[in-house]
Amino acid sequence: MSAARPLETQRMLRTYARQLTSARRLARFRRSLPGALPQDETLRQAKRRLLVEQVSREIVENLVVTGSENQTVQDILGTLNGEFGERFRFQYPPASIDLQVFRTTDHGAQEITGAEKQAVFKRLWEITLDKVNDTML
Question: Among 54, 76, 107, 130, which residue has the fewest nearby CB atoms (within 10 Å)?
C-alpha cells in the first residue's frame, strides 16, 4: 500500500463533505421552487445506496486498515470493539490481497481466521454502512 493512499482517502472524504453541503443547499432550493417535480424515489434510493457503499468501501479498505484518527473511523471501531467486547486490528500483509484481522490480548495480537473472521468483518461492514448512511442526507 503506498503512502499516497491515505492522502487520497482524506481528499475523498473532504470532497464528500463538500458534496453533502452542496446537496443540502440544492435540496433547500428545490423545496422552495413552486411546483417542483418529485424525483423518482426508487432511482434516488438506488443512487444513495451506491454512494453509501462506495464511501463505506473506501473507509474499510483504507482508513480502518491504516489506523486513521478520523472520528468516523474511531466511532466505527469503537462500536465494533464494544459489540464483541474485544479490540480488533486490521491489516494487509505485504504482497497479499487478503485482509488480516487480529484480536488484541494481554499476550499480544492473535490472528482471527475462518468463520470468526468472517463474522467480525461482516459486522464491520454493516456498522460502516449504517454510520455512512446516517451521516448522509
Answer: 107
Q: Is 109 helix (H, G, I), strand (E, B) or coil?
A: strand
Q: Which residues pair with 108 in a beta bridge?
A: 105
- Cα–Cα distance, 137 to 120 (Å, whole number): 28
With b for 16 or more beta-carbon neighbours within 10 A and e for fewer, the 23-54 pattern comes to eeeeeeeeeeeeeeeeeeeeeeeeeeeeebee
Q: Give residue-wise pLDDT tens across range 5-17.
A: 778 888 888 888 8
Question: What are the beta bridge partners of residue 112?
Answer: 101
Place of cell 468516523: 72
The C-alpha atoms of residue 89 and residue 111 are separated, in whole angstroms, by: 9
Q: DSSP class of residue 35?
A: T
pLDDT tens-digit readout, 70-128: 888 889 999 999 999 999 988 887 877 788 899 988 888 899 999 999 999 999 999 99
Euclidean distance between CA atoms 32 and 127, whole angstroms? 35
For residue 23, pLDDT over 70 is answered with: yes
Q: Which of 122, 136, 109 is nearest to 13 (CA)?
A: 136
